[in-house]
Automatic annotation (TrEMBL):
This is Histidine kinase. One of its GO terms (cellular component) is membrane. The chain crosses the membrane at residues 7-25, 37-59, 71-94, 114-135, 370-391, 397-417. The keyword Cytoplasm does not apply. It comes from the Bacteria. Keywords: Kinase, Membrane, Transferase, Transmembrane, Transmembrane helix. GO terms for molecular function: phosphorelay sensor kinase activity. Residues 358-433 form the 2TM domain. Coiled coil: none annotated. Residues 159-237 form the Signal transduction histidine kinase internal region domain.
């Protein structure tokens, strides 16, 4: 139990004891006040504390968001059983042990049944409030989580858009077409190969642009094709070395990340026959490295770093591992995390999200309505029982509203958590699956 909850129970005990002492105690002396305070502490800490611990335990074992129906049934059953036992325990301590107004035989003979029942209703009210509070807190957490997921979806969509803009680099297309134009006259056969390689490049871009992760093997095949185009364009001014372990081939990386990094190597470094640019793609532990010797090209406009930030953003959506960038006087290196399994990503389909949101919203309203009904039932019925026992102790008319409304609450519970539209839909799906 948290410190804040203990302090709350303490002040509740003090407030209740002072109310009972000044309103119902005839002999107002220190001894009676201490007795009242002790009894109030017993009821508050035993009933309130136990129900709070029960709610906390159920929140950890069976969260509302993961198993709403199961949690509701277990909560209802557990609070009835727990409060029944706790109320009898507290009343026994109060009337038999502390006040000594009854013997053990008299207490369990039925003399205190109405008082026990009334106290159980009050305890159920407290417990229902705690569980409803826990449900609302869980609902807030889920809502916050959905907001975070929506932000991630928006961030992912923006990252994919930026990625596409970088992947279809107009400068690369312009330079490639110039090379192709010169090859058509000089070497038609090489021009055909160059055209086929360009076709593979853009086919891969279109195929992979909507994916979150691809195998290292597919990304390497694409990178080699891309390097062939660059090799045709720059001839012996650039050199590409691939040294990736075969055990990494079935692992995953962000698609088109190698293309962005290779394009950066060409864009930001000069390459000549006398001073060739060497680019290495190799394995380094659980990372895929792209390293080039540093031959910085003088640029009028400073680099915006969109390519690297794009890769970092897309990796941040898939893993907690970081993209590392190393720069020295001699080389520039980027380490891409290699993922052992294909990551689970959030669906970015707006229609599916909207339907799921509406369905969840409807479900929350149903559960909220049931708990409002349950709390109202506990409050009103407890008040009716109190009025009946105080005014007419022999004529017990409170049974009629208690039983009548109780049947309504029970049917409401079955509709929301068991025998309702969700149950019917589940059965329909089961029958359809069997017929298939």
């Amino acid at each position: 139990m948290k410190r804040k909850e203990i302090i709350t129970l303490f002040w509740v005990s003090v407030a209740v004891s002072m109310f009972l002492f000044f309103a119902f105690t005839e002999n107002k002396n220190l001894e009676n006040f201490l007795y009242t305070l002790l009894i109030s502490f017993i009821y508050s800490f035993v009933l309130g504390g136990a129900n709070g611990l029960l709610n906390t335990f159920l929140n950890k074992k069976i969260p509302w968001a993961e198993a709403t129906t199961k949690r509701a049934f277990i909560s209802i059953a557990s609070i009835f059983i727990t409060n029944f036992i706790l109320v009898y325990f507290c009343n026994y301590i109060n009337f038999v042990v502390i006040q000594k107004g009854a013997t053990t035989e008299a207490f369990f003979s039925g003399k205190y049944n109405f008082l026990n029942w009334f106290t159980i209703n009050v305890a159920l009210l407290i417990s229902a409030f705690l569980h409803a509070k826990g449900f609302m807190e869980e609902l807030k957490k889920v809502s916050r989580k959905e907001v975070v997921e929506q932000k991630l979806i928006a961030k992912s969509a923006n990252a994919q858009f930026e990625s596409l803009k970088n992947q279809l680099d107009p400068h690369f297309l312009f330079n490639s077409l110039n090379v192709l134009s010169s090859l058509i006259d000089e070497n038609p056969q090489q021009a055909q190969k160059f055209t086929a390689s360009m076709s593979k490049i853009y086919r891969y871009v279109l195929e992979q642009k909507d994916k979150e992760a691809v195998t290292v093997e597919d990304e390497l095949e694409f990178a080699k094709t891309y390097c062939d185009l660059l090799k045709t364009r720059f001839e012996d001014s650039v050199d590409f070395i691939f040294d990736v372990k075969k055990e990494d081939f079935r692992k995953y990386v962000v698609p088109l990340s190698l293309q962005l990094l290779l394009e950066n190597c060409i864009k930001h470094n000069f390459a000549t026959s006398s001073r060739p640019l060497t680019v290495r793609i190799f394995s380094d532990g659980d990372a895929l490295c792209i390293e080039n010797n540093l031959q910085v090209r003088e640029q009028i406009k400073e680099s915006s770093g969109i390519g690297l930030s794009n890769i970092v953003q897309r990796y941040s959506l898939l893993t907690k591992r970081n993209v590392f960038i190393e720069k020295s006087e001699d080389y520039f290196k980027v380490k891409l995390p290699v993922l052992a399994t294909k990551p689970n990503v959030i669906s970015t389909e707006p229609d599916g999200q909207y339907k799921a949101y509406k369905k969840a919203q409807k479900r929350v309203k149903e559960i909220k309505g049931f708990y409002t009904n349950l709390i109202s039932y506990c409050i009103v019925c407890s008040f009716l029982v109190f009025i009946n026992l105080v005014t007419q102790s022999r004529n017990h008319w409170f049974w009629f509203p208690v039983l009548g409304w109780g049947i309504g609450v029970a049917s409401h519970a079955f509709k929301v958590f068991g025998i309702g539209e969700a149950w019917q839909e589940k059965k329909i799906r089961e029958i359809m699956n069997k017929q298939k």
